Every structure is written in structure tokens, then in C-alpha cells.
Amino acid sequence: MDPHAKGQTSGSSRLRDLIAEQVERCRKMLRTPGPNAKSLIFSEAFWGTATSWYALYGPLYMVALGVSKSQVGLITAIGLTVQVIAALLGGHFADQWGRKRTMQLADFIGWAIPSIIWFTARSMPHFLIAAAINGLYHAAIPAWSCLLVEDTHPSNRQTVYALVQMVFVGSGLLVPIGGLFIKHWGIVDGARAMYLVGLLIVLSALSIRQWGVKESTIGIGMVEERIAASPRQTLGEFYSSFVIIKESPTILILFLVQTISMFTTVIRNTYGALYMTEPIGLGLSPAIIAIIPAATSTTMILALLLFVPHLGPKHTGWGLQVGAFCFSLGTAALLVAPPGLMIVPLVSAFFNGLGAAILDPIRQATLANAIPDHARAKINSLIAVLTLMATIPAGPLAGALYSIGPRLPFVLAITLQITSQLLLLWLVGQGALKQA
């Protein structure tokens, strides 16, 4: 037999084995979630579509209706302020009313009603009211976090979070549809059509969760225990949760990394589209920038399917650091992008997608495993509150920097991302992840 042919046959066989192994890993990944997690993951496709549209085109829509760029940052801050209050109450309601009821009610009020206001908005006060009501959705976050993991084995939680990421960002592939709305009807009428369709999408997601999600075992027990809980007991539990956060290096550092991630995300979501489309920025077409979220989503999906399944517990520290570094590269690419050239923002989208695919599932799973089950709702609520409080200045601060120079908000973002990288290096060096 020809040795070259033999080598080709051997190479083809190895390739088939690798493909078969990868397919089996993906199948195992999809079989991992329980019933609650499956319904929550499936509904993320709907939430991801609506929120991606809103985040990308919301600031452009506001400016087109006469809202100033500094007022855009103020509106963001109002929404975050309400989110702080809602997140604080969300942990209490999740234990008092049950996880599912709290999640559904908060998301209906926080997304369906604002979608109607955005659809009919005419001026600055309408956007302020919508942002304030939208902030109430954060009361659902502690309950959603509990339902996702409470009936899931700790060893499977990283996979569950990876699937959440994959489905949520996969919906970003539909963002160009929003771009078509803008292209055909302009910023104002196109955005109105987008908010109307977004309302229907939100109602569909709520229906899927209503039929597919049941109260978790821990949630049922907490409701039975908390019927007679006094306000003093509730405050005492929040204080105990704060002590747990403060005394656990893993929880504390991952909380700080999450806060930095949210702070930089607010900067990117609030001023990214403006920077890319305005003449003082990159001067790109508002319709064409819809490709950016789609590129991010494509990168994340490929990474979550082909790369992340190979990351086990022994890769936790490495994955956290590499993921954080990719975010820094994504921001750096946006900073050096020349005007009118689309390729560099696409490179930025690639690194942001890769960073999110690697960092977020590992960070969320490691944090979830470090939190005691009995204190999960309160700690999730407290982390959300503290994160949001730290994030409130992001919009106004980025607005002030943008008025000085359009690149300055992203200089702040990359500085914070480097800080996050150093915190993770310290955490890994201390061996706290292995202890957790």
C-alpha cells in the first residue's frame, strides 16, 4: 500500500474520531440541564433578541427624539438606581413568595410595560419613566439565579451557564433584523417597530417560563419557613450574607470582577453605538453596525460548542484569566479603530465574544458553587445590589468623558478591565479557587 495513502487514511480516521468526540461532548452538554434549567435556557433566546435590539438601538432612538448625549447617561443612571432597590427586594420576595412567582411578576412589569412606553415615547420624560419601570426587572434576577441552579448538581452548573450564554448570545444573530427595521424606516419609525416586535417576544418568553418552570425544592422549603419572618430577621439575614461575602476570597473577588464587567458593559452599551456611528467617532452606518452583535454571538456560539466543553474544574483559574484578557483586547481594538473601517470593530466583537464565552460561565458557576444553598437568594440579591450601586455612575461618567473625547469612555473601560485581570491573578495565586 502507498505510504502516502496510508497516512491520508490515518489522518482521516483521526479527524473522524475528533469530530465524533466533539459531537458526543455537545450531546452530553445538551443533556445536562434539568427541566427548570431547560425552560429557562430556551426562553433566553427570546430575552436575548429583545434586549440586544434595545441595547444597540435604544441610545440612537433617544438621541433622534431630541435627548442629549449627557441625558442618555442620566437615563441609564436612573434605571440602575431603581435596579438597586429592586434587587434588594428581589432576594426577600424570592424567599417570601417563591422563586417562580417573583421572577415572572418582576419580568412582566420590568419588560412588557417599558416596551409599550418606548414604542410610544416622544420626549425625555417618557424615557425616564420607562427606564425607572424597566429597572424593576432586576427583582427577578435573584429568583432566576436560584431556579437555574438549585435543582442542578454543582458539577453540572458550569455547563448550564455555558448553555445559557450560548442561547442568549445566539439570539444576537437576529440583531441584523433590527438593523433592517432601521434601514427601511429610519431610526425613529424603525425603532418603534422594533419595540413592538420586542413586546411580543417578551410575552412569548414569559409564556414559555410559565408552562415549563416549577418552583424549586429549596424554594418551596424557604417559602414555608419564611411565612412568619419579621423585617428584623430579614435584615439580619442580609447582614449575615454580607459577612459571608466579605470573609470568602472567592465570592468577594468574583463579585468585584462581576461589578467591573457590568460597569464596562454599561459603558459599551450606552456609548458604543454612538461612538461607532457619529462623525466624531468611527462614522459607520447605523444599519451596518447590527453586524457587530451578530459577530459577537457567532464567536461565542463557536467557542461554547467547540472549546468550552473541554474546560473542566482544573482549568478554572486559567479560564478566568484568559477570558478577562480577551475583554481587554476587545476594548483595545475599538480604541485603535480608524474611522470608516468596519473590520476593526469586528475584531473587537470577536475578542468580546471569546472573552464572554470563556469567562462568564466559569465565573458564574464558581460563584454559585461557593455560595451556601440556604443563603443563596439573599447573597445573590446582595451581590446584585452592591454591583448595581457601583455601576450607577457608569452612565453619567461615560457621558461626561464622551463629551470631552469620544474615546475616553473606552479608555476608562480598559483600565477597569486590566484591574479585573490583576484581581483574578491574585485570586488564583492565593489558591482560593481550589479551596472553594
Structure description:
This protein is mostly helical. It has a single domain (33-435), classed as MFS general substrate transporter like domains (Growth Hormone, Chain: A, Up-down Bundle), CATH 1.20.1250.20. The protein has 18 helices and no strands. The longest helix has 38 residues, at 175-212. The radius of gyration is 22 Å and the shape is globular. The chain starts with a helix and ends with a helix. The model has no long low-confidence stretch (mean pLDDT 82).
Précis, in short:
The chain has 436 residues and is mainly alpha-helical. Helix content is 82%, strand content 0%. The protein has one domain: Growth Hormone, Chain: A, CATH 1.20.1250.
Sheet with the most strands?
A: none
Number of strands: 0
Shape: globular
- The CATH class designation is Mainly Alpha
Low-confidence stretches: none
- Domain module tally: 1
Strand content: under 5%
Looking at CATH, which topology would you report? Answer: Growth Hormone, Chain: A
The N- and C-terminal alpha carbons lie at a distance of 56 Å
Mean pLDDT over the residues: 82
* Multimerization status: single chain
Which secondary-structure class do the elements indicate? Answer: mainly alpha
Secondary-structure element order, N to C:
HHHHHHHHHHHHHHHHHH
Q: State the share of residues found in helices, binned by percent.
A: over 70%
CATH superfamily: MFS general substrate transporter like domains
> What is the CATH architecture annotation?
Up-down Bundle
How many helices? The count is 18
Radius of gyration: 22 Å
